[in-house]
User: Fold this.
Amino acid sequence: MATVQLSDIIDTTVFQDIPAVNSPEKTAFFEAGAAVRNGMLDNIASQPGSIAELPFWKDLDASSDPNLSSDDPAVDGTPEKIVQGEQIGRTAYLNKGWSESDLASEIVMGPKAMDQIRARVDTYWMRSWQRRLIATYSGILADNIANDDGDMVADVSEALTADVTASSVFSRQAFTSAAFTLGDHVDDINVISVHSVVYKRMMDNDDIDFIPDSQGQMTIPTFLGKRVVVDDGMTFTPGDGTNAPTYTSILWGAGAVGYGMGNPKVPVEVERAERGGNGAGVETLWTRKTWLVHPFGFQTGTAPAGPSYSVAELGQAATWDRVVDRKNVPVSFLITNG
Assistant:
């Protein structure tokens, strides 16, 4: 009996050209405008090399007083200059494979393996993108606490369970404490991402309103007019009875994250191993991504152990360094006990 293999039922060219059902652009971060795909970052991610140099003009110094005009032609005014800064990012080169043995393909009943893979591969990459994004901001939080006096953070949490009160869990007052770390740029915030435990408290507090999506369904949660993104990948530390759990929520403004996509040499391919399975044969579907996800206002610090940062490395303080004024970074962090 002939066995249908992955290479028989998947055209890799067609596969990679089919629009992703669940791509990074389908996440709430993109839909709310916190993450923005950038043509310049696409170009950088498509070029050789892993380091992205992103120059920017620093703002004019508003603390410098203007000259006092006079009618004396002998007195020359002294102009000031505008200078450039630089943000440094790194492109991530990623891949993932899924294998199917010939024997399993012959024995299995129900949907073909390829059908299941096609249904879930986009979701896998979307979740991977979000994990890397959240890890990046965990590292930025750690850097901010270590090197910038925590000027982007409002921590209302208590260390011990016995000390937890209404003031140490999520509330409107806690939210505004975090939002106003931006000072008079507080209105830049339009998204808040939270763990489901925190979202439950927001619901219990009757603080969630729903607005219609593009189909007119009342499905998009908002808090004080800010879109709410619920993700259990958000950073949290479980409690142990004595020590209280802590949850990190992130407040985002428009364009906080820039995103570019490169072009892997072979984005999708099927590998055939005739000797696999003790000669029965094994096939593996390989997918590859080249991403440049960069938080505005930061540059990378310590180099990764390999060509790209791992999720663990993204979450380290040494990986990030802020290079712009705090008010120019439309992000804040809120740490609560739930």
Residues 6-58+84-336 form one domain. The first helix runs from residue 6 to 9. The chain has a mean pLDDT of 85.
